[in-house]
Amino acid sequence: MPKPKNAMEIFQVLDKSNCRECMEKTCLAFAGAVYLGRRSIEECPKLDRETIERFSEKSEHENSIEQNRDAYLADLKKQVARIDLSAAAERLGGRFSDGRLTLKVLGKDFSVDAAGNLSADIHVNPWVAIPFLDYVLNGKGITPSGRWVSFRELKEGQERYPLFQKRCEAAMKQVADHYTDLFDDMVHIFGGRQVAEAFESDISVVLHPLPKFPMMICYWKPEDGLASSLNTFFDEKGADNLEIGSIFSLGAGLALMFERLSQRHGFS
Question: What is the mean pLDDT of residues 144-150?
């Protein structure tokens, strides 16, 4: 359906009970937060799946991204066939053996051969495969600076942030809200380490989706009438090792993996 013209269109489909299970004071406040992009319609526990799907249909821009994704992935694989994988391994902090370049992705081995064939110790989905290949082809291997910035502070990040917030941060927050202990376990299973004290939250870890490309996730549980929140941060040198489109894809891919794991192992 077209994007709602105002918050009242969203409010009309809510049950108007002001149950506060979404951690907003009223259903109208929740509708306003959804309209402004701060919350997802899926966070209302009273809505049926049909209504959620109707209000969650992808925008034309999102559909365009998905339509071009497979073609872009195929092109990246062709480009890999034209580079020296052993030199790439040295540049990126990976290893080259038996004709394959292997890098650590979330602490797990992720490999590509000269024909562009991928193999991994984790599920290979396009949202992670594309950043991996982009990193192999174009990553500069620059050492992280240790200074954290938000996605919107990265080069060209401001324009893409609303969609990143929806596909990455809001999606991860929904998993963390519904399966908090499981979410904590998942980020540590993927090699998460504790962050500096200045960034501490209820759950706060640094992951390495790629070598020399750290990502920090900070989640605050709801407390004293305040809604929960989740923010992601990247090393300021991140855009030197990975272009912004791949950083977006990586964030969306991580959120998708967390969603699928929670559906498989979580309990309502």
Answer: 91
